[in-house]
Design goal:
The chain has 440 residues and is α+β, with helices and mostly antiparallel strands. Helix content is 37%, strand content 24%.
């Protein structure tokens, strides 16, 4: 029945189901996304715990656009030895340029000037497929087994460990179970917190990746994140590869839940309708945009052959994160809107906090989980709120209000740069947070 052969090891259990940290030799990880593979790498290298990963998909996914990883996450990737490989693929996009609806730049800022001084890292935009290729290669070199087509159907615990079962009849047993299986986590649904359900944020995204070879020559020189507020959402474009041979553009807007309720079929139908009309909608919104920026963004949209649509969901704060020998981390525990670019970074912070606590003198896994939640809750809630605030600028606005926002944005960024407010760390202090300092 077991997927792998286990070595019989002594179990250390105190009365009342209190598990000693010294008994943790093997970990089962559900989910082979960034959180799962990064957790496996860290626990194997730092804690000498043997990981095995199970993934519901039949093969490594190639879906997804580009993800942003700010200073706090990049520093942890460096400590895992992954920074050089990721830097070779992703694009440094620490600068922000805000454009008016007519195309002209109304303000610039370096989003990581202060946090870069504190951490040594800025902001990386990288295609999800490139990120995953680096992580899968690292797992391969580390000899970490990843099994695909594994649909989790059951979780059971006893004094000797935690057992997971899958729809194909196979099972596995370990000393620790980590749920790294995203916002729709089966580990959360089946075992840790069945009553917590994802909530729709009210915001949906359309995105695409376009080779710069198909665009005006100016596209290859796009630097940093370029954004434009419209009356119907936020439009943005940035490079996503170190070679600058590809741009990532997205349009983020307010959108109601489809008629008939929050069902997969409803969203798929709405998505199909949105994709069919989105290019003309966006082009109409920015029809007055002129100059190099206007030409580049319009051509990026016109040359787009494949669009991806997805509604942005989040988990409510305050959910349960652990039960017995099981802990859910990353989006499985606290998925937030992507508008603070903290998805990968929050998972990394979870992983390092857990890893360091398992190496501490706390003694029991129960106590480690208690301290883990005590230290992580405030930080996660803080970033959750930031992401929600940032999502607010995606909402519809009348033309007069858009004009006012452009003037206000120009003034604020002008003052920010004139007086060097970036040197004070305004808006950047969360990016310099070091989870390892918080562990001790």
């Amino acid at each position: 029945m077991s997927q792998v052969q286990k070595v019989n090891t002594p179990q250390y259990t105190l009365p009342g189901g209190i598990y000693l940290i010294q008994s943790i030799i093997q970990v089962v990880i559900i989910g082979a996304g960034p959180a799962g593979i990064l957790a496996a790498l860290r626990l194997q290298r730092f804690n000498h715990i043997s990981p095995i990963i199970y993934e519901v998909r039949s093969e490594p996914t190639t879906l997804g656009g580009a993800v942003g990883i700010p200073s706090n996450g990049l520093r942890l990737l460096f400590r895992l030895g992954l920074w050089d490989a990721l830097r070779e693929r992703g694009a440094e996009t620490s600068t922000l340029s805000v454009h008016a609806i007519k195309g002209q730049v109304i303000g610039n800022m370096d989003m990581t000037s202060w946090s870069r001084e504190k951490t040594g890292f800025g902001y990386l935009r990288i295609r999800r497929v490139d990120l995953m290729e680096v992580l899968y290669e690292e797992a391969r070199k580390a000899g970490i087994p990843i099994h695909f087509s594994k649909h989790l159907t059951g979780i059971e615990e006893d004094n000797k460990g935690v057992t997971v079962t899958f729809s194909d009849g196979s099972s596995d047993k370990a000393d620790l179970l980590l749920g790294c299986d995203g916002i729709h986590s089966m580990v959360r649904k089946l075992y840790v917190d069945p009553n917590t359900e994802p909530q729709y944020s009210g915001i949906s995204n359309i995105y695409s990746l376009v080779p710069t070879s198909e665009l005006p020559s100016a596209a290859a020189s796009i630097d940093g994140l370029n954004v434009m507020l419209t009356t119907d959402g936020l439009l943005a474009i940035s490079p996503c590869r170190a070679s600058r041979d590809m741009v990532y553009w997205f349009f983020s807007r307010e959108l109601a839940i489809p008629p008939g309720g929050d069902t997969r079929d409803g969203w798929e139908e709405r998505g199909k309708q949105q994709v069919e009309t989105i290019k003309s909608i966006v082009l109409d919104l920015i029809k007055d945009s002129e100059g190099e920026w206007g030409l580049t963004i319009k051509e990026s949209i016109r040359q787009t052959n494949t669009l991806r649509f997805y509604p942005v969901y989040r988990l409510p704060t305050g959910g349960q994160w652990s039960k017995g020998r099981c802990l859910i981390i990353g989006d499985a525990a606290h998925a937030m809107q992507p508008h603070a670019s903290q998805g990968v970074s929050m998972a990394l912070e979870d992983i390092f906090m857990l890893s360091n606590l398992l190496d501490s003198n706390l003694g029991s896994l129960n106590e480690a989980f208690r301290v883990y939640e005590q230290k992580r809750r405030h930080r996660v809630d803080e970033m959750h709120q930031l992401a929600e605030r940032n999502g607010g600028i995606r909402k519809r606005t009348p033309p007069w209000q858009l004009w006012f926002k452009e003037i206000a944005t120009s003034g604020v960024l002008g003052i920010y740069n004139l007086f060097g407010l970036g040197k004070l760390g305004l808006g950047q202090k969360p990016l310099a947070y070091d989870v390892e300092e918080d562990t001790h």
